[in-house]
Amino acid sequence: MKNEWNDFYWKPYWTKDNYLAIFIKYVKSKSPFSIKDIYISNQLYIKVEINEIHSQDEYFFLFNNDLFKETYRINHNIYFEIPINEFTLDKAGRFLAKGMLVTTTKANQTKIILTSEDVQFNIQNEKFNIILSIENGTLNLELTQKKKGITVIGCCATRDNFNSHFNNDYKKEYEFIQLQNQASVISLVSNPISYNSNEINKIDQWVAGQLISELNKSFFENQKYGENDYIILDFFSDVYFGVIKIDDAFITNNHWALHKTDLYQKWSSLPTYRLDTDFDIYFELWKKSIHELFKRITIAFPRSKVMIHKARFTDKYIKEDGSIVLFDNAKKVPKYNLLWSILDNYVEENFDTIPISISEEKLISTENHKWGKFNVHYDLPYYHEFLMKLRELSLS
Questions:
Q1: Spatial CB neighbours of 265, under 8 Å, sequence gap ≥ 6
Q2: How many CB atoms sit inside 10 A of residue 274's CB?
Q3: What is the rounded CA–CA span in Å between residue 184 and residue 186?
Q4: pLDDT value at 5 more than 70
Q5: pTM of the predicted protein model
Q6: Residue 254: which residues within 8 A CB-CB, separation 6 or more?
Q7: Looking at residue 156, what DSSP letter applies?
Q8: Which of 122, 148, 241, 248 is the most core-located residue (most Cβ within 10 A)?
């Protein structure tokens, strides 16, 4: 008697005469109502079936202290629209509520309608994950703000925006998925490079992991498909480092990481290319590579939006006593920034991207930076403005 169809329970069996018979019994539901469906757009929509409905009664959902009247009804089905965008979320980005179904009769009597069914609905849109459930007669509503997945291909100028030291509340809205740190676009999409793992030494484990990913060209193989909402790019490494050509492949000429290892010693005499000294050669290589990069992004992140962080070098920093002084390499900064603009402009003209640029007055470093003063290690207001602009872009 476990088979149910339109309130009929049925059971097939064989008679003594070897006939197939079906025993059918109509069983009226014991529960006064049942939730048939929920769906979501700007609001949460709930479809409720009322077993004994009276045309002059009105029905309401009560969540915490908020009462929501039925929107419309068709026969025994009543529909509710719950304005979830108006709910106040807690610090963890959640909203929890106990609820009940309430009816008011023609005589203006208010009754609470209880149900014995246990059900659970899970649903989500771009903003919320929602669970609506009935357990032991209690109606529960749980909203959790859906976090945006972030992947960065770039340097600390971009990555640090998703570091709690610089933006202590970024995790309310964003989940950092993966980073390919300080890699030239040319290197990122070139052929894998063979290496002896014992020669990747004299650098810490995290830096070594990033170098190995770049050597293997494995960044796109390690992605969590579908979890990235935004891919944020910056081109610091192409402007600042350049590349080394190794047979038919390239590696970023990173003097902060690669140069410290034994691996670099056998490559130190190989051809190198820099954007500032070999512009024509480098720019042609880079243009071919950026087209390949966007092709791979389209395959690996089909639903993700690509953002270009138009970061720039600063020529000054704040000392601990509050005074502002120039970097030793201040004279190089205008050329670095011009080259960076050329790369950003090419991408904006050729691909569907979203630019993020920060106010020029925020473009300053500080001696108190977590990683020390440097041309792309900014003072805190820079990172705060970045997150504010990212929020605005996410909403639009």
A1: none
A2: 17
A3: 5
A4: no
A5: 0.75
A6: 182, 211, 237, 241
A7: H
A8: 241
